[in-house]
Design brief:
A hairpin with an 8-residue loop joins strand 6 and strand 7. 37% of the residues lie in helices and 25% in strands. The chain is built from 19 helices and 28 strands. The structure holds one RNA strand.
Length: 599
RNA sequence: GCCGAUGUAGCACAGUGGUAGUGCAGCCGAUUCGUAAUCGGCAGGUCACGAGUUCAAAUCUCGUCAUCGGCUCCA
């Protein structure tokens, strides 16, 4: 189901610079409106965002949806009054006195945070000397020239939410009001359409409707149940993943879900990752830990035996299920859960092998992601942070190797200087879905820490014991999350090879039931997932049900079809395909599955 | 975890102090039908859970759990 007008196209026409001014000014207009209506509200900050703006207020009571309507109305009044927006420069002492007059404690904090020597500016709405309304905020700008430049029908207040002052949960909880603003009402509409589209694709909604998975209160939050249809899809995804990895020179391994806490002490996780771990459990007076990561297990396996340089690189892959404590408020469908399966792999190699191994991972990532319809990536390389372990020389060499691999791949990438983990540099890949949202899935991370902590080594050509390089990588990130992204990307309309039920056989009357069952059996033998509608409903109803279940192919069987050993095919993608022989229908579907295409 | 909202049948929702309702789905019966809903009947809920207020609680209060929108964090 394609959207008639692609909202994204309309939104891309917008001028980013002007949008920024509109939103920033809208946030000031909102703050003015709030302080007009609610005298006790203290202002804090109110920036423009990617899709709109927000402003945080300190106020005893939270705002209600009714308040938002009032605020919107007041904003329209301010816009219609067409107040001038004036930038004024101030010296620190004068502006401090002005802020003190207004009794705005947060603004004083903001002022104190402005470095010496920087120009201090305020923006006023309205004329300070006239009798028109007047309001101002300490702000770097930029803004529109007048409030009237905001189109009164191209903005909307969206929601209220709590937010911490300066994003720190130790600070006071402020009341944030989110809004959106655009150049034209058409753009606003397109934006709202896009939100509707995202809602339509919501994996939580589709997951329930299509009976793919559930998360059950009785079991606890963040724990996923894969129902038969979702389970079928997971099997397909995992089988594909395994085949690709074996083909790419990986070996598949399996490791336990719990281990002695001592292991996590050696790995360091018990210190720096404790707050994300489930509590320990006691077994025969020993402490055991549910695993939050797979890496220490693979390290232990590497340690179990002496390795020659001739064995390297060793590539060990595992669909490893890990458990992490996530705070209840952060759980979100499949995207953020407490138990999930990483498509993990660890590569142990020599320093000289880094570049070629990374290149191999990039190629594999591209192959795998493209298969699921993701061909556009945003790639980031993160380099050495302030605090780190490992020698400078190896950091430099490794970072250089990552660059070399990316250049060889020919991918455009951004460098996040100092954004790497303390134990090594990394490459992150974000994929873009069908409606332009970006998701971080793949990550490739060098680790100079674990080999050191576990004292890993291999025997080199000259008989010396050498520390191997450890590369940690995941392509999907987590199967659960990737599945959620897949559902939203395809809006539940999966390509034939992934669809949990590929073809629904629809007998026109009960007289065709046996024939349909026979065809279904034939299809199953041919490796297709076929089902017969045994409800006895009218054909129209059967078609409707299959459409709502988003089954890609419907095969209607009436008296004529039985007579000619054929099927009347109808697909979700292209509609009526006409009558074809059963054998031909099977071949067509098999071909579509092979090509990972729709029918 | 924090701020706010929500939790009624498998699903979508109505019900604001007086014994719990509608549609779809399910089951039974009739219908045997040609590309998105045939008709009739039946059954299904200690109103998330626990406490309290009240003669009386889905409805009011408190607590717990879960979900939703954010904050923070992240696969």
């Amino acid at each position: 189901m394609e959207v008639a007008v692609k909202p994204g196209d309309l939104l891309r026409q917008a001028d980013p610079e002007r949008l920024h001014r509109i939103r920033h000014t809208a946030s000031h207009v909102m703050a003015m409106a709030v302080q007009t209506l609610f005298k006790d509200a203290k202002v804090t900050i109110g920036p423009a965002t990617e899709m709109g703006f927000y402003y945080d207020f300190d106020r005893g009571e939270p705002f209600t949806p009714q308040d938002l309507k009032k605020i919107e109305k007041e904003m329209r009044r301010i816009i219609k009054a067409n107040l001038p927006v004036v930038r004024q420069e101030f010296d620190r002492a004068t502006i401090r006195a002005e802020i003190e007059k207004l009794k705005e404690p947060y603004k004083l904090e903001i002022l104190a945070a402005i470095p010496e020597g920087e120009v201090i500016t305020r923006y006023t709405l309205g004329d300070p000397n006239g009798d028109k309304p007047f309001w101002w905020d300490l702000c770097a700008g930029p803004h529109l020239a007048t409030t009237g430049e905001i189109h009164p029908e191209a903005f909307a207040l969206e929601s209220v939410a709590g937010a911490y002052w300066r994003g720190d949960e130790k600070n006071a909880m402020l009341q944030r009001i989110y809004g959106t603003a655009w150049e034209t009402p058409e753009q606003l509409q397109a934006y709202q359409q896009q939100i509707e589209e995202a809602k339509r694709r919501d994996h939580r909604k589709l997951g329930k409707e299509l009976q793919l998975f559930s998360i059950q209160e009785d079991a606890g939050g963040g724990l996923v149940f894969w129902h038969p249809r979702g389970g079928t899809m997971r099997r397909l995804i995992e089988d594909y993943w395994k085949d690709m990895h074996v083909a790419a020179g990986y070996e598949l391994v399996n490791t336990p879900h719990v281990a002695n806490l001592d292991l996590w002490k050696i790995s360091g996780h018990n210190d720096f990752y404790r707050e994300s771990m489930f509590d320990t459990m006691e077994v025969e007076e020993q402490q055991y830990q549910l695993k939050p990561m797979n890496c220490p297990f693979h390290v232990l396996m590497f340690k179990d035996g002496l390795h020659s340089y001739r064995e390297l690189p060793m590539r060990w892959a595992e669909l490893g299920t890990v458990y992490r404590y996530e705070r209840s408020g952060t759980l979100h469908g499949l995207m953020r859960v407490r138990g999930f399966t990483q498509d993990d792999a660890h590569i142990f190699c020599t320093e000289d092998q880094i570049a070629s191994e990374i290149f191999g991972v990039l190629n594999l990532a591209e192959t795998v992601l493209t298969t699921f319809g993701f061909a556009d990536y945003e790639v980031n390389l993160s380099t050495r942070p302030e605090k780190y372990v490992g020698a400078d020389a190896i950091w430099d060499k490794a970072t250089q190797a990552l660059r070399q691999a990316l250049d060889q791949k020919g991918w455009v990438y951004k460098v996040d200087e100092g954004g790497g983990a303390f134990y090594g540099p990394k490459i992150d890949i974000k994929i873009e879905d069908a409606i332009g949202r970006r998701w971080q899935c793949s990550t490739i991370q060098l680790d100079f820490n674990l080999p050191e902590r576990f004292d890993l080594h291999y025997v080199s050509e000259d008989g010396a014991r050498v520390r191997p390089i450890m590369i940690h990588r995941a392509l999907f990130g987590s199967i659960e999350r990737f599945f959620g992204i897949l559902i939203e990307n395809y809006a539940g309309d999966f390509p034939l090879w992934l669809a949990p039920a590929q073809v629904r056989l629809i007998p026109v009357t009960d007289a065709q039931r046996d024939f349909a069952e026979g065809v279904a059996k034939q299809m199953k033998t041919a490796g297709l997932r076929a089902e017969v509608d045994r409800s006895g409903d009218r054909m129209q109803k059967q078609i409707r049900k299959a459409e709502l279940e988003k089954i890609p192919v419907m095969a209607v069987v009436g008296a004529k079809e039985v007579e000619s050993e054929s099927l009347s095919l109808r697909t979700r993608k292209t509609g009526d395909l006409g009558v074809v022989l059963v054998t031909v229908a099977i071949e067509k579907m098999q071909a579509a599955v092979r090509n990972r295409d729709w029918l």
